[in-house]
Specification:
alpha/beta; TIM Barrel; 8-stranded parallel beta barrel; two-stranded antiparallel sheet; 12 strands; binds ligand PBG; binds zinc ion
């Protein structure tokens, strides 16, 4: 008790670094990249300052740039030139993502390439898989969409992706993808499951970036309610049992309780600091209301502290510079 115990003794400037409990490393971060099949020059995303849609021709160069910062992993999103109801461009061997993976792997073989496995950027209705009639109106059909996810995942693995990341929140998606990958000889391709992905309003800027807004309804019949921590734990536990190698919580900063509970399952956990989390910090900083670097680093250390092994963040490249 005070005055015998004085915790400020270990907070002296020179002593304090010895007792830092959480450390953010460059190795913890994954940089998201957007490739646009129709682009010829990089186009800045209006709602995400500092983020671009890149043309395919720049993939190799961008990979080299990322590697130079020390960041070891990227996650790719594609904007196809053609969309249809079945999302068929998503598994085209000559599709935007498949070509981008090959270009990146040719330029920097060691860069870890993660691909988002979902159809919402590729369907004309904007939903994450196959849509059909249900007693409650049109909705995403679960089992018919599983085959599509397996086709997409295998096409990414064939192109050379190290890790595939299904983000559609379908029941059974991890098992369906694992079976098909193994069947096609990709038993070493890892699965990072977006195991608890919430129906969040923080994806708004991403939907501009990836042109993946929907033409009817919303995603609340497949993404989770922000009110449901027990369901998030169950979702994560099921994906573990279906064979996921890495679990994910998304968004990150407002879901630190979820992150902490999912980390207790014992599998590596990734957290996705989503577009809205990034854009809010950028906008406030642009107004001079907050210090961008300080707030961004604080947001990242908080995500680490809650139990994330890996953080997908649009700040990855800047943070790598800040941490050096
Ligand atoms: C695709 C997908 C989304 C994000 C990652 N993968 C959008 C969505 O589910 O609507 C969001 C990422 C972000 O906001 O940064 N399913
Ligand atoms: Zn989707």
């Amino acid at each position: 008790m005070f005055p015998e115990r004085r915790l400020r003794r270990l907070r002296k400037r020179n002593i304090q670094p010895l007792f830092q409990e959480t450390v953010l490393r460059i190795d913890d971060m994954v940089a998201p990249l957007f490739f646009d099949e129709s682009a010829t020059v990089p186009v800045e995303i209006a709602s995400m300052p500092g983020q671009y849609r890149y043309p395919l021709g720049m993939a190799g160069g961008i990979a080299q740039l990322v590697a130079k910062t020390g960041v070891r992993a990227v996650i790719l999103f594609g904007i196809p030139a053609r969309k249809d109801a079945g999302g068929t461009e998503a598994y085209n061997p000559e599709g935007i993502i498949q070509q981008a993976v090959r270009a990146i792997k040719a330029a920097v073989p060691d860069l870890v390439v993660i691909t988002d496995v979902c159809a919402c950027e590729y369907t004309d209705h904007g939903h994450c898989g196959i849509v059909g009639k249900t007693p409650c109106g049109p909705d995403l059909l679960n089992d018919p969409s599983l085959e599509l996810m397996a086709l997409i995942a295998v096409s990414h693995a064939e192109a050379g992706a190290d890790i595939v990341a299904p983000s559609c929140m379908l029941d059974g998606m991890v098992m369906a993808i694992r079976e098909e990958l193994d069947c096609e000889g990709f038993e070493d391709t890892a699965i990072m499951s977006y195991s608890s992905k919430f129906a969040s309003a923080l994806y708004g800027p991403f939907r501009d970036a990836a042109d993946s807004g929907f033409t009817f309804g919303d995603r609340t019949t497949y993404q989770m309610s922000p009110a449901n921590p027990r369901e998030a734990f169950l979702e994560s536990e099921m994906d573990l049992k279906e064979g996921a190698d890495i679990l994910m919580v998304k968004p990150a900063g407002m879901y630190l309780d979820i992150l902490q509970s999912v980390a207790s399952l014992g599998l590596p956990v990734a957290a996705y600091q989503v577009s809205g989390e990034y854009s809010m910090i950028k906008a406030a900083a642009a107004n001079g209301w907050i210090d961008e670097k300080a707030v961004a680093l604080e947001s990242l250390i908080a995500i680490k502290r809650a139990g994330a092994d890996l953080i997908i963040t649009y700040f990855a490249l800047d943070a790598a510079g800040w941490l050096k």
